Amino acid sequence: MAALPAMWRLLGMIALICGNLLTSASAEEWAVPDVDALPMDAFGRTVRVGRDLIVNTAATIGPEASDPAKRFSGNGLECQSCHLDAGTKKFGLPLAGVWGLFPQFISRENEVRTLEDRINGCMERSMNGRMLPPDGPEMKAMLTYIRFISAGFPTGRGAEGRGAPLPLPTAASDPKHGEAVFAETCAVCHQADGQGKRWGPEDAAQRHRYQFPPLWGPDSYNDGAGMARPITAANFIRANMPFGTDYAHPVLSAQDAFDVAVFVDSHPRPHRLGNERDFPDRALKPADATYPPFLGPFPPSQHLTGPWQPIQQWQKENADSLRSNSPAPGD
Ligand code: HEC
Ligand code: HEC
Q1: Which CATH number fits the domain 175-265, given the four candidates 1.10.760.10, 3.40.50.1100, 3.30.465.10, 3.40.50.620?
Q2: N or C: which end of the chain has fewer CB within 10 A?
Q3: pLDDT, tens digit, 9 for 90 and up, residues 73-83
Q4: 262-304, pLDDT tens digit by residue?
Q5: What element of type H or E holds 320?
Q6: Which residues pair with 104 in a beta bridge?
Q7: Which atom of ligand 1 is nearest to the CA of 235?
Q8: Pocket of ligand 1 (CB under 6 A)
Q9: The model's pTM
Q10: Which CATH code for domain 35-158?
């Protein structure tokens, strides 16, 4: 009988060693430099300002900014609401490692875009706001921060934690079941109405408008945002939600993540004018974009719920005619 506890101890030790090996291996490959270790010189101060803009967006360049001329973002979100841990979390839409990837071809505009352009893409969509001046102090600070936290990543190759897309479900995802997942797993923070939880006056020291950000409605991302596409949302949710989840230990099953993403993205949110001009090369329009023009013989609801492969397959087969019927850039 004494052999049994000894065996458990041994197994425990093996698990501990493996766990340590795993942690140190991933810590090595995911090495984000420490902003707080920087000296307080001009560079160090600019990096810190950039981080502050990403963590406290609403208060610095959004609706809570004291100077009305500085209110560029238009909702209650921070960049960090999605780019978790100030953009340093693996699989939390990291900004670490992004510096060396731009300029890059972006299918949404069908042209090569700079990192400034890409940041402004999130300003106009995820933040439901307007563009930052590309040569202004805020953009300069954000670029300096992103460049600093990207130091450990090779130029031209994205970080591994930038995306590992879940295999797509072969059937339509179910927003009804998503509603149940939401009630059980998400509403405790994001609230039953999805409008998040605002800090009250007693939390005046807080620089965030929300303790838990809204997932839909007037203060959330608009319908042209990446997060408004259910495949993108499902991947983010599965790797990161409920808050605190680590991508290596997801809480939701993949199907639950798709169902709840479809549920979240089926709700009204601000409308971005001009969405129909996105993805001028229609062959490259993501199957889960939920705004017109809708391509192919599929009901509009299929872009929201899937199955998405038949749409992707149809786009592949019709790529040439889709391309030649696409509006010219600027149309
Ligand atoms: C509502 C969620 C959300 C918010 C808020 C948000 N973003 Fe994003 N951002 C995304 C998504 C989704 C992507 C696309 C990732 C992809 O292409 O798979 C993205 C992409 C980016 C990229 C390109 C990253 C890459 O890997 O190519 C940059 C840079 C970026 N965002 C900066 C910002 C900045 C700066 C802010 C604040 C001003 C911001 N974002 C706010 C969701 C968000
Ligand atoms: C323990 C609280 C908590 C739970 C539970 C939780 N979230 Fe979140 N969620 C957050 C916080 C906090 C953020 C913003 C991250 C930050 O500011 O650092 C966030 C951000 C988000 C975002 C991006 C920002 C936005 O407002 O759109 C989405 C989407 C999201 N959560 C979806 C979900 C879904 C779906 C679930 C359920 C599966 C869920 N969350 C469960 C706390 C939570």
Answers
A1: 1.10.760.10
A2: N
A3: 999 999 999 99
A4: 999 999 999 999 999 999 999 999 999 999 999 899 999 999 9
A5: helix 319-324
A6: 113
A7: 18
A8: 54, 57, 77, 79, 81-83, 93, 95, 98, 101, 115, 118-119, 122-123, 126-127, 142, 162-163, 221, 225-227, 232
A9: 0.92
A10: 1.10.760.10
